[in-house]
Amino acid sequence: MDNQKITLFAVAMLAVAGVAGLVVLASDSDESAASYSGYGTVYTVNLAPGFSYTYAPTYPSDLTVTTTIEKYESTGINASFSSGTLTVTVKDGITSGSYDIILKATSNTAGLSQTAYQHIRINVVSGLSVSGSINDIIKGAAVNFTPSGTSTMGDVVWKVKSGTTLPAGLTLSNGKVSGTPTTLGVNTVSLTATAAGESKDLVVSFTVYSKIVGGFAQTIVSHGNTVSSTAISNGSDIKVTWKVTSGTLPSGFALNSSTGVVSGSSTVKQSVTVTLTGTSGAGPSQTATKQITIKSEPNLAISGGSSVITYPGAAAKTLTLTGTSGTSAQTWTVGSATGVSISSSGVLSVTNAASSGTVTVTLATEYGQTATKQITITKEAAAAITGSATFSKTTAANATSVYTSNVSGTWSVVSTGAPTGTTVTMNNGTLTLAGSSPTDAFTVVVKCVTPGGQTAQKTVTCQIVSPLGFSSVPSSGIIAYEG
After folding, report:
1. pTM value?
2. Lower CB density within 10 Å: C or N end of the chain?
3. Bridge partners of 470?
């Protein structure tokens, strides 16, 4: 405790005769409490170690008084009287007890001798004491700290210790430190308490720890590929450890206990929800949770044809598409196009109102997978065959006649009456007529079938005739001469 002096003025006054003097007396004798009785009223003064008590007695102004210390208990205190003032201090090592002092006043004024005594009792009391602590907190929590300061010498007043500042977010008001600290880590509050001139410092440290966080619920989907949940970001100062507290991770998945990341892969159709709980390993106890749903299924793909052909007047054409089996519920959609639609089972329908081009078919699963397939739509023109409606040849050699279609396709010929020994064939639009004997006229049907299924036909009248020549030769006969 720092030694400081406080001057306490007595209320009581002694009215004694005499002339004031500057006398210092001290008794080193140890006397019993009984030896201090009989000196009149006892005036009690509380005095703490390290403090000084001073007292300047006063007297009637018409008297000249000399004041001395008659005796005092030197076992616990030091006492002296000088320049009209009594000074008392507590001896080192003395922390309690009561110790008496007797002042003697003498006067010889106007030939009248007078003596008076004043009995002062010093009660040794405890001095200024300070204490207090602030618990470690989680960031965002408030501090409401009232330091403890006691002193029997007077009221205790607190202030921020000189040369220091309070941690950011804290203020001192009316002896109370309050507010919300904003700085992570160790925060130090340095205060000074003062009472009756005595000062003591109180330094209190506490730690502000990060607040634990869990996170929003998350869904991860695997279809044979490795997937991971988002890492849960927490301050390293709280040393969070994660574990599964509800549900069971499916086969192929694992939890990183430090980051809270769930990762893995699977092609099994499943949907599993687990709850992760993070627990702090440092600072005030904290927990946080996060839910993760793990979904998995086979990889999604679309199989089936990739083209559809239609033509004017044709009935709706269909194309059956299928998705990978064993997935979650599947939904089919097709891009916007006139005359094109798709059923819930994957049957694509193309009417003759459609135009040539491509459309995109999309298949989506309940678990969020998507697959697409481009379908080519061909819109044929109305098929028609051009070429001669009659086809004749002589018996001398085979003959051909060429036919064309505005839509390419597969050609054939249907004979409707070719005589025996006569053949009519068609090869890629070329009609060939063969036969060595003249025939009567007969008809055949030339046919072209398009990729879209259209059939174009043309009826051709055919005939084989003899080659032109003389079937007779000159012979004997009448020759007439002009006469």
Report:
1. 0.66
2. C
3. none
